[in-house]
Design a protein that fits this description.
Blueprint lengths: L1 H22 L21 E4 L2 E4 H5 L3 E6 L6 H19 L2 E7 L3 H14 L10 E3 L4 H5 L5 H5 L10 E6 L5 E7 L7 H17 L13 E3 L5 H8 L3 E4 L2 E4 L3
Parallel strand pairs: 3-4, 4-5
Antiparallel strand pairs: 1-2, 3-6, 6-7, 8-10, 9-10
Helix pairs in contact: 3-4
Length: 248
């Protein structure tokens, strides 16, 4: 009995390793980048519905929003991709490139896009690339999987969660959002945080809860009253650490 067990292990293990080599050809769990705000967004070269791209070259000197989907032809994802496509002119105004990701191939993506154009964009052409991440390599590099799936990524079916990454022109991660597979994203919120991040970079301010463009902003506590007066003009002090101003 013992000899049979040993024989099985010798036969099976190489097959598993070969499978892992094919699926995760340049990914090792222990080498996974830590994706934090301020991290450099991991680069990758991958096939998309717009052809092969180098991700950092695709971003160029723009901002980018990268967001993932569990699979093609799924109902929530269909609504999301269509909504992002309809909002693309707004992202364009802000110098933001959109790019989606799903775990099927390019042919499947292209067929799915036809459905999206039919039921969500009302005939308008779909506006940005979808990454074909059939090996799940990009999903793993960006930690787009659940805890359980990450532990078991060498076996079984793994679906990506609904992750969102806002990336600036320096290729730094500026915002991350992660949703469970059952919950659709809020496209208006993603557009709002892009506005907030870009305004913060440009004017050196912070934005309060539920802030939208045109509303008062917060002067950071690191700015003295004298410097705030010189930089922003009038401002309202609610607490010494909480001061509001209207940008002109």
């Amino acid at each position: 009995m013992m000899s049979r067990t040993i024989l099985r292990s010798k036969v099976i293990v190489p097959r598993v390793n070969a499978l892992v080599g094919r699926r995760f050809y340049s990914f090792k769990q222990e080498d996974q980048p830590r994706i934090r705000i301020g991290s450099t967004a991991p680069n990758f070269v991958v096939n998309t519905t717009a052809g092969k791209i180098d991700f950092h070259e695709y971003i160029g000197d723009k901002w980018a929003v990268l967001f993932s989907h569990p699979a093609d032809f799924t109902p929530v994802c269909t609504t999301e991709l269509g909504a992002f496509s309809k909002l693309k002119p707004e992202f364009d105004k802000r110098g933001v490139k959109l790019i989606g990701l799903s775990t099927e191939g390019v042919d499947s993506h292209n067929q799915w896009i036809k459905d999206i154009e039919e039921v969500v964009t009302e005939g308008e052409k779909f506006g940005f690339p979808i990454i074909a991440d059939s090996t799940k390599e990009v999903a793993y590099k960006y930690d787009m999987v659940t805890e359980e799936d990450f532990k078991n990524l060498e076996s079984g079916m793994v679906a990506t969660v609904r992750a969102v990454f806002v990336i600036d022109p320096a290729k730094k991660i500026r915002l991350t959002l992660t949703y469970p597979a059952s919950t659709g994203r809020n496209t208006a919120e993603i557009l709002r945080v892009v506005d907030a991040l870009q305004l913060s970079d440009k004017r050196g301010i912070a934005t309060p809860v539920d802030w939208t463009e045109g509303q008062d902003v917060i002067i950071p506590p690191t700015v003295s009253n004298e410097a705030a007066k010189e930089k922003f003009g009038d401002f309202k002090t609610v607490k010494p650490y909480l001061r509001y101003t209207t940008l002109k």
